[in-house]
Amino acid sequence: MTHYRNIEEVFEAFNHLKVLVIGDVMVDAYLWGKVDRISPEAPVPIVAVQKRESRLGGAANVAINIKAMGATPLLCSVIGNDRHAEDLLGLMKDLSMDTSGMILSDERVTTVKTRVIGNNHQLLRVDDEVMHDLSVKEQSEIFKAVKTLIENEKPAVVIFEDYDKGVLNESLIAEIVTLCKAHNIPTAVDPKKKNFNAYKNVSLFKPNLSELKAGLKADIVKPTIDNLNAVSEPFRLQQNIESMMVTLSENGVYIGNDKNKEVIPAHIRNISDVSGAGDTVISVASLCLALGLTGPTTAALANLAGGLVCEKVGVVPIDKRQLLVEASKLKV
Q1: Model-level pTM?
Q2: Which domain holds residue 85?
Q3: pLDDT of residue 315
Q4: Residue 266: CATH number of its domain
Q5: Catalytic entry in 24, 28, 162, 279
Q6: Active site (annotated) includes residue 28
């Protein structure tokens, strides 16, 4: 383990890191209610609303996980100049998160995903969003905000959290990666399909298996080490990526770089809900990357963290103390 005598020292070192998260942020809104009749207007259930809740989602959920691990998140995105932006910024302030990297734009709406839940079952989801690329003006503003945060806050790692909502595009990604290289800051990517091939010269690239298949148009029948090497290694070399990390759900996680190529098995868990597990994995992996930990150690710790949040219902951040206890037991 680089510079650290034990896992406790690693977890203590997380507390001193600043992490810049760039990407698509959103509000996850929930309407909970009771259903005991069908509408006379159409054959649909009537939900008598009993509770409303709004949570931070998308790249902002990665920032929440970073904070849960003791580090300081810096969030950078473009949102609408609308009432939902007020909600989003209010939620960030409630968590004492820096909002200086948030750009308000009259050309976009703030992404809100509203879930209607009746009798504890999701009945409907309503998405309020635009997905087109940033305008030249918006792109210039977000790059300026990123540059300012990098120069003033000196983050230990930069995360690209891409949800295909338009905040990240090929030219902006290239500009930011170049800027990070100039400041010797490692870069980690949680990709989606649209910009999959736009990430070049990054430190860590973390798709899940379905994103890898879609991004590379590859047919991986079984996620064996040979099959994963055959698909991911040519891409890694072509894109000049230092490490590929592919999450494989119940099959664990694949790590591939110049020194290591292995699949780290999943830990047997009582899976309740996989929501948000990817956000937790990229958060923990990026913190390990910032500390210069080895690929296998990074993958093992991130894999463990992802498994732990799957035991909880809903999108919840990682419990740092629980992760430390589990990591100590497994001698990660």
Answers
A1: 0.94
A2: 7-25+57-97+131-330
A3: 63
A4: 3.40.1190.20
A5: 279
A6: no
